[in-house]
Structures are given as C-alpha cells and as structure tokens.
Amino acid sequence: MKNINPTKTEAWNKLKEHFQEIEPLHMKKLFAEDENRSLDLAIKWEDFYLDYSKNRITSKTKNLLLKLAEECKLKEAIDSYFGGEPINKTEGRPVLHTALRAGKDAKIEVDGENVMPEVEEVKAKIKSFTNEVVEGGRKGYTGSSFTDIVNIGIGGSDLGPVMVTESLKFYQNHLNVHFVSNVDGDHVHEVIKDLNPETTLFIIVSKSFSTQETLTNSTTIRSWFLRSAPQEAVSKHFVAVSSNVEKVKEFGIDPENIFPMWDWVGGRFSLWSAVGLSISLAVGYSNFEALLKGARKMDEHFKNTDFAENIPVQLALISIWYNNFFGAESEALIPYTQYLHRLPAYLQQATMESNGKSVDRNGKKVDYQTGTIIWGEPGTNSQHAFFQLIHQGTKLIPADFIGFKHSLFLDKEHHHKLMANFFAQTEALLQGKSEEEVRSELQQKSLSEEEIKEKVPFRVFDGNKPTNTILIEKLTPESLGKLIAMYEHKIFVQGIIWDIFSYDQWGVELGKQLASKILEEIENNALQNHDSSTKNLLKFFIK
Ligand code: G6Q
C-alpha cells in the first residue's frame, strides 16, 4: 500500500477551494436548480437504494472526492486488502474477514497457502454443531437438550454476535441466547441467576484466550456450573472459539469442542467466523449462511463497481468531506427498526477502534482529522431524545437513516407511521423552516405582532443538515450481511485515504497494563506511586 498524505494531493487542495463555494450554499437551492439531482446522487443496487442527494455536495464535489480516492491509490489498496497482503502492518497480518464469506470456490492465499479449505472446514463444523444443538440431538450431562446459550466474550468477541442476534430476533428459534461480556460481576451473576446448568451451553469466545474479562467470567461460570454438575460434564457444556488452542485446553475444554479462528481475522470483524457461533445457534445455520452471502455480495459490489457508483466508496468520501472540510466531528446512525438497536454500538467499535489513529502509515503524527465519532439510536425513539440538537443545535451532524420498505410482522398501520417519520425527518433536516414560514404559521393563530416577534427566533430551523438515506427492501439475514459489510468497507476506504493503519488497536493497551498493576495494589492493599488524583480515589475505594 502506498503511503500518501491526502492533504498533499491536488484533489485535496481543490476540495479546500471548492469548500469555500459550497459552504454558504443551501441544499434547497441545489435541489431547485437541478431536477435530476435526487436521481444522479443515488445508487440502486440489489435490494438497496442509497439516496445521497441530501448532502452538501454538487457533481463537482463528487468528482473531486473521486479524484482524491484515485490519488490516494484506493483501487490498488482494495486489491491488496482482498488479495491477502499484510495490510495490518503494525501487527504483520493480512486482513481477511472477506475470506470467511468468499465461498468455497474462492482461492485466497496467506503465506502461499490457500486458506479456503480451512475456512470451509470450520463452517462445516459450525453447521453440524448448530444442527445438533437446535434439533436437540446434542444433550447436556443429564440427558436434556439445550434451551439456553451463553456467549462469554468481550469487544469483537461480543459486539458483533450481540448486534446480529438482536437484529435477527425475528428469525430466532427456540434457543435463548445470552451474552456475558463485562468483568463487572453483576453482569455475569445477573445472567446466570435464572439459568439451569443442565440445559445451558456456554461458548467462550476469545481469539487470544488471555482476555481478563472473558477468563474471569468463564472461571466464575465454570465454578457456578460445577456446584451442581460433575467435573466430566464440563466437556458437554463448554465450547470455545479461539486461535490459542493450548490455552483453551489448559482451561479444561475438550479439543473436540474448539472452533479455531485465525490471526488474519480482526476481532471487530470476526462475526463471520466461528465467533458467530451464537448467531448460527440462534437463527439456524442456513440463516447464518445467508448473512455471509449478503456480505459476499457487498464484497463483490465494492471490489468490482466503479467508484462513482460504489456504495461504500461514496459513503466514505462524503463522510471525509464533512470530517475534513466542514470540521464535523461525529456522525449519527439512525436505524428505523427496533431490531437494529445495537448497530450503532457495534459500529462504534468497528469505526472508532479502526480509524481512531493519529499517526500515519509512515509513523508520523498527522496534522489533519481522522476517525469520526459514531453514535445513534433507533428512530422514532431518537426523535424524542436527541434530534433537537441535530435540528437546531450548533453542531453539524451528518446522519445515516436506515429504513426498510417492509416490516417483519407486516403491521401496515405501524409501518406507515414509522416510515412517515423516517421520510419526514430527512426532509425536515434538508428544508428547515424559514422565518417567513414560522411567521405565517403564527399569524394564522391570530397572535399579536409583538408575540410573533418574540416567538419567531426559537421556531426557525436553518435546515441544510446532511443525511444519507439507505432504504432496503426488508430486514433479512442477507440484507443485514450486506449492510454490515457496507460499513466495514466504508471504514477501510477512510483508513486508506487518511493514510492510517485501520486494523490495529494499540490504543487499548495502556489502560489494560495499568489496570493489572492497580489490581495488584488493591488486592495487597499496598498503593504505589500515582498522581494525587488517582491515589486519593484509590484510598477512598480501599478504605
Ligand atoms: C477487536 C479488538 C478487541 C478484541 C477483544 C477481545 O478488534 O481486538 O475488541 O476483540 O479485546 O479479545 P479476545 O477475543 O482475544 O478475547
């Protein structure tokens, strides 16, 4: 991969000049001047309809952003990404979550060896295990079938599976799936308090098998389990997903019950691997396959489509436009379906852990903005919560609105109301409400001129607030796979253009190191040197 400082490109400098023209313009004017705008700035692909016309861009902006992608050698970088080159250079690994969904006919090499046979082998293991558990053939130590599954993992070994199982709840079978992640003992005790050890299956998910939270929770759960079950029952009730086979065996898990994963799959992109075992159990293997298929289709679209019509590329470039030229700091993600309520949390990790970097690929401090802050909640709930700030606050918050043409329970009355809000919000954000409009509304209420004058300023909406609308036919495992992969590739494109390494996460290490030192001090009641703030807090805690 080439290391190109984006701010030194010709396109960047032209974008800087172009920003001066665009910044004062209202999108209303852009729509009024061009009746084809909403068709030109939209992409229809499979069951997806992306409308990005409600953005503060013109065709010139689009062309300059495409030029930026070209100058930053995006095409070449995509080839390196899918081709298995070690693009995660600071950890010396390729980034191949795309191989997990590439299909059995693909050939993808790591160090000269095709990884696909191994990938397919693990998938076959996930399939047979899932079928045995779902159909009830696999039994617990007293001969009962499983009713409950507990996924024990954190970060990438938790957020993806939680988000997908929540998103696909409509497709869920009889198994109840629970997640334990936090080292907070109240989390694990709250989850296990109502579980029956005889009918519960535990999946320990830890790529490294050395994560404090996961090992602590697993040990607590195993002790709880052994209070009623004999030692030999552990092999029937505990399985693990890890790349550290030795450590899993040390924990006492039967080697038969280990689902391998690989160094070339990053934690936050691992739900497509055996890390997604809880997903497969919850919705059945065929739905898990459909999820992978959706992601594969998005991979193909991303790899093979001209950048001008390429969904992840367009989303990434528009986001760079706001982040680096408008100075926007965050992006909101508003799914208009309750099922996707964990998508913002999932994408917080995927986006912020990947692109929250301030050193470029040459090891130099950057002097431009990188990673955006992601946040959001489902609509319409969010409308009654933080939309005030998006509509009338001082900050520019570009937002993605994700909606579905069909609901799952087919309740038309609800769905029409939901979607009316979906369309109304992006329109309101675009149009705003002018002083004249507010005035005439108040005049109709027969208010005095003085009252009107006093009320007007608070009721005006500037509008001109950018949104992308992603309208999808229906929430299915396949469309969800496409949606997640779409954001994964958006993250990749941004990392390439910002000239940073998106696939490491050194920033999470320092806190971990300090925590293990402080833990020792707490346990031995022997405080070492700290800043006075930390010291006094620790004294208060220990006393
Ligand atoms: C993700 C990160 C991180 C990781 C967790 C859990 O990309 O690497 O969130 O997934 O720290 O790690 P283990 O799976 O090794 O327990």
What does this structure look like?
The protein is α/β, with parallel strands linked by helices. The chain has 3 domains: 6-71 and 305-431 and 466-504, Glucose-6-phosphate isomerase like protein, domain 1 (Rossmann fold, 3-Layer(aba) Sandwich); 112-288, Glucose-6-phosphate isomerase like protein, domain 1 (Rossmann fold, 3-Layer(aba) Sandwich); 507-542. It has 22 helices and 13 strands. The chain has helices spanning 10-22, 27-33, 37-40, 59-71, 74-82, 116-135, 159-167, 185-192, 212-226, 234-237, 245-251, 277-283, 285-304, 311-326, 343-355, 387-392, 412-431, 435-444, 449-459, 477-498, 509-524, 532-542; strands at 42-45, 48-51, 109-110, 113-114, 148-152, 176-180, 200-205, 238-242, 258-260, 330-335, 373-375, 399-406, 467-474. Helix 7 (159-167) links the parallel strand 5 and strand 6. Helix 13 (285-304) packs parallel to helix 20 (477-498), helix 14 (311-326) crosses helix 20 and helix 15 runs parallel beside helix 20 (477-498).
Observed structural traits:
543 residues, Rossmann fold, 3 domains, six-stranded mixed sheet, 13 strands, 48% helix, binds glucose-6-phosphate
Integer average pLDDT: 97
Count of the domains: 3
**Which topology of the largest domain does CATH recognise?**
Rossmann fold
The strand line-up of the biggest sheet is 1-2-13-12-10-11
The CATH superfamily of the largest domain is known as Glucose-6-phosphate isomerase like protein, domain 1
Structural class: alpha/beta
CATH architecture of the largest domain: 3-Layer(aba) Sandwich
> What percentage of the residues does DSSP assign to strands (E)?
5-15%
Q: Judging from the principal axes of the Cα atoms, what is the shape?
A: globular
The count of helical stretches stands at: 22
Rounded to the nearest angstrom, the distance between the terminal CA atoms is 54 Å
* Count of distinct strands: 13
